[in-house]
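Journal club side-thread
Mid-discussion, someone asked how the predicted structure for our own chain would compare to the paper's figures. Pasting it here so we can look after the session.
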Amino acid sequence: MPRFLHVADVHLGFDRYDNKDRTRDFFIAFQDVLERYAIADPVDFVVIAGDLFEHRTIQPHILNQAQLCFERLREANIPVFAIEGNHDNRPYGTRTSWLRYLSDWGHLHLLEPGDVAAGEPFYSPWSEADRRGGYVDLPCGVRVLGSYWYGSAAPQAIARIAEAIQTLPPGPAHTLLLFHHGLEGQISRYQGALRYADLLPLKDAGVEYLALGHIHKNYTEGGWVFNPGSIEANSVEETGFDRGAYRVTLGEAGIQAELMTDYIQRPIVRLRHKVTELETMEMVEEGAIATLQHAIKNGRLVPEPPPIVELRIEGKIGFNRLDLDTRQLKATLQAQSNALIFLLKFEAEEMEHVSYLADGADRQQVEREIFTDLLSSNATYRKRAPELATALIALKDRQLEGSPEVELYTFIETLMESEGTSDQSSNQAPDPDPAD
């Protein structure tokens, strides 16, 4: 019975966080998947359903990573069949890509339909001499067909592919098609997804196993449509997705596809800290640190190997959000977590305090309420908001009267000193009872 490994969305050269170690993670994960699930317990072949690379233009060391992986497969006599995805397909108007380069040099087989407009058949058998072809019939009993990245034209392309398959000469017992596109209902905010009904012409044309890529989440539909998900998480949002590589056996009993997920991946931890408008800025900082320490203590966050950590601060705050030094707080949290990458998402909203003025309120009442609202929105000044509002009005009046700046500064210093005295007295223990 033929066995193969189905991977997709490897994204070698991933550089979203501008971190060399994170970029290398994608190579290490891909390498480990191939070693464990294709070489250690050999399969007949490996298929890559698009997006081997993160970018159409890649750095030399990223190309070298791909060559190292494929050289290991070649040493084990395991052929690789691939198609281009939307990340690594050839730019418009060009006739080459880095996948074409790898194919020309024998590292893999890039399966592509022909140029019908130029008189070529849609599907031609693979030619080892030309390193070109749209499909290949393997000795293990599988016909593997390729395709392109079609984008919004995918439904029309499916009809052409199905028609072309039916014109091919009889082949092996099993038919596999590589197709880089996603199905609707799998992830939110994804425009242009295919409906399951759009794929049925392929099934009617004899495709037994449809090897998908593009969506980074594992899913299967109808017992013949399989998407393994990405090898590594491309964002912290993908942490909750099942993903990996399919190890597949085709036999008389049907398709046996097992999602393999036990391989080297960078740990990613997402934390949330809820705040209220009663907390001062210092309390928010202390709470964020406490949330991180709690995750470490409970074993949810292990400092080794260095993880990727995201902490979201949510809720309402009673101070100006710009006053919180998020850069320093992030540095503190990153040091304590030993994170490779620390993402601090400060998403708390400032509390708005609104008083309702009676109709016909005079200017002094309006001013008082405005000052009171502003002060009440700040956790530090909320308790003394009415008193401080009166003081601010007095300060404004003195300034309008032309009082010297020295007197204005003295007035403010006296006001702040009285605030400190008030705070200290409220925090002091009560005097002993004279009767004692």
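Post-session note: The first helix runs from residue 20 to 39.
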